Amino acid sequence: MQTRTTTARGWTATSVIQRYGIFIALLLLCLTLAVINDNFLSTRNLLNVLRQTSINGILAIGMTFVILTRGIDLSVGSVAAFAGVVAASLATTSSTGMIAGAPYPALVAILAGLAAGVACGSVSGAIVARFNVPAFVVTLGMLSAARGLTLLYSGGRPIPALTEEFRWIGTGSIWGIPVPIFLLLGTFAVAHFVLTQTRFGRHVYAVGGNPHAAKVSGLPVRRIRFSVYVIAGALAGLAGMLLAARTGSALPQAGIAYELDAIAAVVIGGTSLAGGVGRVSGTLIGALLIGVMNNGLDLMGVESYYQQVIKGILIVAAVMLDQSKNKQD
Question: What tens digit of pLDDT does each residue of 95-132 get?
């Protein structure tokens, strides 16, 4: 006798929850907040939620590549800050600008910020892949090193007075929709395509699922592991520049603990810490869930300390669910 409810396709209720639980949770959270606060569903507030989520969403997408290969990157917050000050030093109109001849065109500043992120990711990736040092240790060291480089480069001071051209990526809009939202959706679309439609994406899953089998099969395991940290570094650079552009000033202390929100979005979105299982769409929903939760708690006047507690509970619950699924498999 069958004891579990099944759908028309034969899926169990448990499997539906495991596969679509994050989407259901986001929908229920939105419906609850809409009932509690009339302002939640306003166009202005929803765009604000998406704009605020864009930075964490971009960081989390890069983190997804790393976690899919059984890695972790604790340095993305510091790398974001470093890339932000590098780009800002080329885009400031202040007389205290770091680089002679500034301000440069926004494209030059953006490319410099991306290069800074890629450089940090390359160092971490090379050490993890070539010397097989645990990613936790390597990226913890990069967290400290990138923060130190940020303070040295900026002299410990904010870099203000960024050009309007550069600030547009953080404060501008297209058809009334903030530019950061387009950048988030564009990043998601590219990442989704890479992971689902390319050989590199299949190799990422293979390396995370069983590194030994992937190596025996002839896959370039070291190159793939190196590449995912480069991707994470590049997207951290993009996120750091968005943060600087949105605030109009690059702060050397920016990005502190951002790696925790990024990891939370990935784990809550269903990507397994054991590697090889996960979807970038789940990561996006996880980032949105965190953003909606923070926004809703703000609208209700809940202190930020409680938000940290709730976020911690969500992370632990997601990891427990992941562990239970792994045991079942």
Answer: 655 676 678 999 999 999 999 999 999 999 999 999 99
Reported in sequence order, the residue ranges of 151-286 that DSSP labels E, i.e. its strands, are 173-174, 177-178
Task: For residue 164, give Cα distances in angstroms to 36, 94, 161, 237.
Answer: 38, 13, 9, 19
CB 271 within 8 A of CB 198: no
Does residue 35 contact residue 242 with C-beta atoms inside 8 Å?
A: no
Closest CA to 266 of 51, 61, 26: 61
- Give the list of residues 6+ apart from residue 276 with CB closer than 8 angstroms, or none: 68, 70, 205, 206, 207, 208, 209, 210
- pLDDT tens column, 5-28: 444 455 676 666 667 778 888 898
Residues 6+ apart with CB under 8 A from 77: 59, 143, 236, 255, 256, 257, 258, 259, 262
Residue 180: φ, ψ to 5°: -55, -30
Instruction: Give the C-alpha separation, 134 to 127, whole Å.
Output: 9
List residues bridging with 6 in a β-sheet: 12
148-188 tens-digit pLDDT: 999 999 999 999 989 999 999 999 999 999 999 999 999 99
Pair 267, 315: CB distance under 8 Å: yes
pLDDT surpasses 60 at 63? yes
For residue 183, the cross-strand partners are none
